[in-house]
What we know:
about 100 residues, mainly alpha, Histone, subunit A, 2 strands, about 40% helix, EC 6.3.5.-
Amino acid sequence: MPSISRDEVAHLARLARLDLQPDELDHLAGQLDQIIGAVAQVNEVAADDIPPTSHALPVTNVFRADEPRPSLTAEQALSGAPEAEDGRFRVPQILGEEQ
Length: 99
């Protein structure tokens, strides 16, 4: 006999706006009982001397250091552009009128 009753499953189904058939209520009551039992087992294993973790392995930053380096000049960047205007890339207008 599951510790979660058929009425509790029906109540949860109503809250979730699920239309469950009577045989589904009985089936889900057993499944929810197993899920709650598994969570209870995890709670029993958890010990106070084990720190909480978000990852199984240590996470380190894999990015390079942010240091200034030489880059393209504006003229070099615009040299490959199909169209340029006033030192900027010229692109087709996509959002209606100019402001």
